[in-house]
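Supplementary Methods S3. Input chains for the assembly prediction are listed below.
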Amino acid sequence: MGKSLYHEDIVLWSVEQAHALREAGVAQLNLPSPIDWENVAEEIESLGRSERSALRTHIGVIIEHLMKLEASPARDSRRGWIDTVLRERRKIEDVLDDSPSLRREVPDILVAAISRQRRLVLRLLALYEEQPLTALDDLNYTEEQVLGDWLLPDRRRS
Amino acid sequence: MSKSLYERDIVLWATEQARALREAGVAQLNVPAPIDWDNVAEEIESLGRSERSALRSRLAVIIEHLMKLQVSPAEPPRNDWMDSIDLQRREIEYLLEDSPSLRREVGNMIGKETPRARRTVLRTLTRHGEQPATDLNQLSHTEEQVLGDWFPPRA
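Predicted C-alpha cells for the full assembly:
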C-alpha cells in the first residue's frame, strides 16, 4: 500500500497520491482542519515530475559526452568527459532505485535526447572550429550503451 | 483561506497543511482512495524546510562577503563580493515575497550565521596569508545592513 510504495517507487507513489488527494478533495469529508487539496496534490505531483526531469537531464548529459568522445578530435578533455559519463550513470542508478517505474520511460527519453544532443554537440564543435570525426546524424545509442559500462565503439578506442 | 495562503506565504501554508494532513490521518476518515497521510505531510513540510534553508544559506553568503569587504586587504575580489551580495539580496527578496512569515526568522539566522562566517573568513584570510584589517570578533551586522543596500566603508 501507500506507505511502502513511498520507499519502493516515489514517482508511482506521487502519481497515486495526487490522484487520491484530488478524489478526497471532492468527497466532502468531515475534516479536523481544512486541507488545500488541489495545491497539496499539485505539490505531491511535482515530486514525480522533478524525478523524471532529473532522469532526463542525466541521460542528456551522458549522450552529449558519448557523442563528444566519438566525434570530437579534441584530446585534452577526454578524461573529463569519461568522468562525467560515469558520474551521471551513478546518479541515474540512484534515481531508478528510488523509482524503478521510470525505467520504462528511458527509451522515449533516449530518442528525444539523442536528436537534441546531436544539435548541441554540432554547435559546440562548430564553436571550437572542430571537424566532427563521424557524422553526428549517424550516432545512436541503445539503452544498454547509455546506462551500462560502454564508452566508445571499438574503432575509436585507442 | 488556505487556497490563497498558498500564494501569500508558502512556508506558512506548508506548516498549516502538514498539520492538517496529520490530523486528518489520525481521524480515520473514509477517503475514496487510500492516502499516505504521514508521507504526504512530510513532503509538504519539506517545502517549508527548503525555503528556510535557502534563506539561511543566502544570509550566510552575504554576511561572509560583508566581512571580507571589511577585513580583507585584497583589492581585486571586492567587486565580486559586492556583486555576490547584490545577487543574494535580490534572491532573498523573492524568497520573502513568497513567504513573508520567514522575515521574523531573519534576525535569529543572522545571529547564528555570524560566528560561522567569522570562522570561515578567518580561515580564508589565513590561507591567503592576509592579516584582518579589523578584529573579526567585533564585526556583526543588523538586519537592515544585511538585507538593505548597505556596504561597509572601505577597510
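Chain B touches chain A at residues 1-3, 5-6, 13, 16-17, 19-21, 23-24, 27, 29-36, 38-40, 43-44, 47 (CB under 8 Å). Chain B has a mean pLDDT of 94.
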